[in-house]
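sry for the spam today, last one i promise. struct tokens for design, 374 residues
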């Protein structure tokens, strides 16, 4: 539950809303109490920004800790050190992951597991088949166990009417008492939901005047790669500037965007030819670093890169399809050598990712027949 814990980060000039919760990071066998920051685009900061899939790996590996050995060292930076004595936790990797996924849905205004359960309950109440009850029951059990008491927003009844409804007369749930649901329990649950439906129907609508907010698509991480030959199915690896996709610019064909960028950056013609002929993008970068840079390059480089990316995806329709398939996701571009072009754990400017999103938007406009000025 987000509550008042509201934060944000800036990505590509866009304010990405987020929230945070406490967690332990296990580093070098020591447990550090810290804050876990969760953002609407599905990135989680657990001492470094990671995607939800990467976060799951952090949980499985124990980096984000959910169990604590007796006597293990623990620390709250700048506050205290201690050892665990009789530690008890009710959070598991599966439970924490489910809660984080719910939080991402909530930050986007999408139905979370609780809302999906209540929608399944509505379907059952409208058509009371055992198949619909089973679907509602499965949706209830998909709610993180720590959140089920809050599902109805009623701290007097908690979730007992929900349990009784999805279990049915004679049925049981894991969290129910040892006794099966009685007909009286079930009838009370039905009456509860009927009254709840009337109350909801009487509430005034609160639809925003300009429609609902657009949710944030899950961010896509474009990892540092070491490309070899061109692949038949490269996936998002093809979106890297060092991917071997020849680019023609001003009548000259370069082996990749990276070759073209570094060749165009140097002032001397001979050095430019050497960069262009380099065996791989890293050799091209190294040769360019040793040469004299063009005057004013620092201020012109984003325009040059924009033109090269437009050329790449115009000249390679198959790669344009890969870029278009990313939808409207934030593209996070790794670049260990540059905090300007890369993101580098949330601390770079990510200009390559930002320009890829710009070119993607232009491709989408072209596909939709939307004319672009100029």
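last one done:
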């Amino acid at each position: 539950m987000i509550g008042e814990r509201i934060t944000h980060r800036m990505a590509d000039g866009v304010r990405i809303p987020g929230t945070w919760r406490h967690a332990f990071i296990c580093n070098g066998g020591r447990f550090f109490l810290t804050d876990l920051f969760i953002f609407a685009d599905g990135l989680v900061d657990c001492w470094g920004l990671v995607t939800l899939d990467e976060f799951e790996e952090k949980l499985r590996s124990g980096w984000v800790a959910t169990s604590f050995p007796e006597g293990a060292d623990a620390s709250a930076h700048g506050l205290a050190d201690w050892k665990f004595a009789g530690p008890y936790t009710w959070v598991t990797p599966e439970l924490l992951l489910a809660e984080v996924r719910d939080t991402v849905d909530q930050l986007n205004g999408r139905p979370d597991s609780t809302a999906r359960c209540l929608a399944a309950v509505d379907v059952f109440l409208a058509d009371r088949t055992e198949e619909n009850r089973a679907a509602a029951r499965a949706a209830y059990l998909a709610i993180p166990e720590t959140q089920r008491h809050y599902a109805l927003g009623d701290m007097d009844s908690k979730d007992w009417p929900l349990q009784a409804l999805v279990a049915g007369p004679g049925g049981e749930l894991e969290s129910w008492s040892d006794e099966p649901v009685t007909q009286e329990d079930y009838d009370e649950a039905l009456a509860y939901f009927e009254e709840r439906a009337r109350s909801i129907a009487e509430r005034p609508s609160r639809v925003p005047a300009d429609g609902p907010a657009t949710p944030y698509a899950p961010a896509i991480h474009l990892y540092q790669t070491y490309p070899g030959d061109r692949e038949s199915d490269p996936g998002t690896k093809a979106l890297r500037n060092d991917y071997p996709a020849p680019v023609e610019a001003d009548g000259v064909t370069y082996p990749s965007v990276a070759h073209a960028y570094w060749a165009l950056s140097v002032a001397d013609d001979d050095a430019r030819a050497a960069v262009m002929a380099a065996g791989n993008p890293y050799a091209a970068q190294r040769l360019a670093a040793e040469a004299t840079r063009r005057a004013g390059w620092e201020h012109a480089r984003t325009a040059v890169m924009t033109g090269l990316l437009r050329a790449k995806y115009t000249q390679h329709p198959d790669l344009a399809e890969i870029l278009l398939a990313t939808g409207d996701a934030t593209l996070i571009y790794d670049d260990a050598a540059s905090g300007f072009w890369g993101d580098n754990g949330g601390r770079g400017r990510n200009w390559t990712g930002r320009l890829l999103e710009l070119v993607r938007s232009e491709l989408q406009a072209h596909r939709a027949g939307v004319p672009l000025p100029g």
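The longest helix spans residues 183-201. ok im logging off now
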